[in-house]
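Marked as duplicate of an earlier ticket. Keeping the data here for the record.
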Amino acid sequence: MDARVTWNDGVSFVATSGTGHRVTMDGPPDHGGRDLGPRPMELILMGMGGCTSYDVLTILKKSRQDVTACEAVLKAERADAVPAVFTKIHVHFVVTGRGLKEAQVKRAVELSAEKYCSASIMLQAGGVEITHGYEIVEAA
C-alpha cells in the first residue's frame, strides 16, 4: 500500500492513494487554509469509521442478516496539548434491516473491535480509548 501527498498552496494538500483516488486536505482560514477539504486528523477518524463499518457489514452479511443500511457515528476527543492526539473515540453503529438478531449485531461489533479492524486496533495500541455502541432499526 502506498500514497503520495502533494502540497498545493497555503496549508492545502492533495493525497493520492496507490489505487489513484484523491482527497484534498486543507486547514481552516485562521490557519492559512481555505477550508477546501477535511483535516488530516479527520481523515484518520473517517478511515477508522470506514474500516470498522466494512467489518461489521461483512460479518453481518456472512451471518445472513438482512441489512439494508449501516451507519457509524464517531465522536472523538483529542489531547489539549501538542501533539493533539486522539485520547478517546466512541463509535455508535445504527444498523437497519429486516429481522436483525441483536446477538449477531453485538458479535459483529465485538469482532471488528477486537480482531478485524486494523485501524481501531492500531489506535488502541497507541493509547486511544475506543468504545462501541449500537442500535438496531427495523426496516420499513
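See parent ticket for discussion. Residues 40-62 form the longest helix (23 residues).
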